[in-house]
Amino acid sequence: MALILSIETGTDICSVALANDGELMALRESDKGRDHAKKVAVFVDELLKETGVQPDDLDAIAVGKGPGSYTGLRIGVSFAKGMCYALNIPLIAIGSLDALTEVAREDYDAGILDVEEEEWAKARLCPMVDARRMEVYAQVFDNNGVALSDVAAEVVEEGSFKKWRDEGRLIIFGNGAAKCSEVLGDALLVGVAPSARGIVRLAEEAFNGGKFEDLAYFEPFYLKDFIVIPSKKKLL
Question: For residues 44 and 16, is the Cβ–Cβ distance under 8 A?
Answer without folding.
Answer: yes
